[in-house]
Amino acid sequence: MMKTHEMELQWRWIGREKYNWPVQGYMIRYFSLTSILVLVVLTISLLVLPLVLPPLPPPPLLLLSIPVLIMVALIFLAFLPSQLTNVAVTSV
Q: What keywords tag this UniProt record (predicted)?
C-alpha cells in the first residue's frame, strides 16, 4: 500500500507524461496569450460599455412573452406521457 506522501506526489504529476507539467499549474499554462487578451478585452467592454451607451427603451410586450411561452412549452413537454410501448424502466 502506498504511503500518503507517495500518493500525493503521484496525484500531482498525473499530467507529467502528456504535458510535461503538473496538473496543479498556473492559468498561463492552460490559456494562450491570445485567449487571455480576448478575455480581458471582453471583461473591460462589459464594464465600460454600459456606462457609455445610452439606456435602451423596454422591448415590446410580445417579445417579453416569448421566454415565458418557451418555458411553458418545455414544462408541458416534460410532463407529457411517452407514446413508446417498449420502454424498459429499472431502478438501480
A: Membrane, Transmembrane, Transmembrane helix
Integer Rg of the chain from CA: 26
Q: Tell me the CA distances in angstroms from 53 to 44, 48, 49, 87, one per residue in order.
A: 14, 9, 6, 55
pTM (2 decimals)? 0.37
Residues 55-88: tens digit of each pLDDT: 889 889 899 999 999 999 999 999 988 777 777 7
Q: Measure the CA dihedral 70/73/77/79, to 10°.
A: 110
Amino acid at 80: L
**Cβ–Cβ under 8 Å, residues 22 and 12:** yes
Residue 6: the pLDDT is: 54
Give tens-digit pLDDT for 11-23: 555 545 555 555 5
Backbone angles phi, psi at 88, to 5 degrees: -95, 120
Q: Which three cell numbers stand for residue 38?
A: 480576448
